[in-house]
Design brief:
InterPro entries: AAA+_ATPase, ABC_AA/LPS_Transport, ABC_transporter-like_ATP-bd, BCA_ABC_TP_C, P-loop_NTPase. One of its GO terms (molecular function) is ATP binding. This is ABC transporter ATP-binding protein. The protein has 9 helices and 10 strands. By secondary structure, the chain is of the alpha/beta class. The chain has 2 domains: 153 residues, P-loop containing nucleotide triphosphate hydrolases (Rossmann fold, 3-Layer(aba) Sandwich), CATH 3.40.50; 81 residues, no CATH class. Strands 6-7-8-3-9-10 form a 6-stranded mixed beta sheet, sandwiched between helices. The chain has a 4-stranded antiparallel beta sheet with strand order 2-1-4-5, covered by helices on one side. A hairpin with a 2-residue loop joins strand 4 and strand 5. 38% of the residues are buried. The structure holds adenosine-5'-triphosphate (ATP).
């Protein structure tokens, strides 16, 4: 379904989908990001790594417009992000999952995924309440697209269950579905492996690649699980103390002495 949305605004497939340039974020005396620059090309799975406090979540929060930045520039699909209000981010094609799941626990799996359709629906609450023309069609379209995602994510058996009743690993899949429902062209995954068991992490890697291939989207992944990030990423950016310390293929970054040094004593 997302293939239809592959309109390329920026003159073709060679221009990066996301460009971060000289980004600086300071919180009263703490420099969380210090002149960070990198590009993410269309169709890539890019991994963002770094020890605790390196600035990864801060960067994600800048991309979601939850945080402002004192210096630098973020360009998404050829468009500067600085003037984009927070509530427009999903609508412009940036979907996101959170470290702490952002789901409605008392709603069903299907309804949670349908909530993610919101940026793609045109009829507002009032139109729905008044059952104005077009509302039923839009509702049917949302249900159809959410059901497609339920099948893709292997959630058919639990589609009508309340999210609160489900194990953590399943809920994480529901959150992926919610993020995909907005038909993003860039999917930001914030520690998708956190809290998953060994087997679940294994299938997550294949799922991330399948999502990229099936929906032709670009993925930026923050992850502490080195096995996962190194096996799924085409490109890796490493941060430490708010600075970019390395960038390249997983093999290049893994053996970069600065990366090894940054992780000594903090990660295996
Ligand atoms: N809202 C905030 N107010 C003050 N300081 C903050 C805020 N958010 C982040 N920081 C600080 O900015 C730095 C970077 O934090 P950030 O959460 O981005 O790191 P991270 O790489 O995501 O770490 P982790 O892997 O532990 O999630 C840290 O020193 C953190 O304490």
């Amino acid at each position: 379904m997302l293939q239809e949305r592959s309109a390329v605004r920026n003159g073709g497939g060679d221009a990066p989908l996301l460009s971060v340039h000289g980004l600086c974020v300071r919180f009263r005396g703490i420099t969380a990001l210090d002149g960070v620059s990198f590009d993410v090309r269309r169709g890539q799975i890019a991994g963002l790594i770094g020890p605790n406090g390196a600035g990864k979540t801060t960067l994600f929060n800048c991309l979601s417009r939850l945080y402002g930045y004192s210096e630098g520039r973020i360009t998404f699909d050829g468009r500067p992000m600085e003037d984009v209000p927070r509530h427009k981010v999903a609508g412009m094609g940036i979907g996101r999952t959170f470290q702490n799941l952002a789901l409605f626990a008392s709603m069903t799996v299907l309804d949670n995924i349908k909530v993610g359709r919101h940026p793609r629906t045109r009829k507002g609450f009032l139109a729905s309440a008044l059952r104005l023309p077009g509302v039923a069609e839009e509702e049917a379209d949302s249900t159809r697209r959410a059901s497609e995602l339920v099948r893709f994510l292997g959630l058919e058996e639990v589609a009508q269950q309340r999210v609160a009743e489900l194990p953590f690993g399943t809920r994480k899949r529901v959150e992926l579905g919610r993020a995909l429902a907005s038909e993003p062209s860039l999917l930001l995954l914030d520690e998708p492996a956190a809290g998953l068991n060994h087997e679940e992490v294994g299938s997550l890697g294949s799922l991330i690649k399948a999502i990229r291939d099936q929906y032709h989207l670009t993925v930026l992944l923050v992850e502490h699980h080195m096995g996962l990030v190194m096996s799924v990423s085409d490109h890796v950016v490493a941060l430490n103390f708010g600075r970019k310390i390395s960038e390249g293929t997983p093999a290049q970054v893994r053996k970069d002495p600065e990366v090894v040094q940054a992780y000594l004593g903090t990660e295996s």
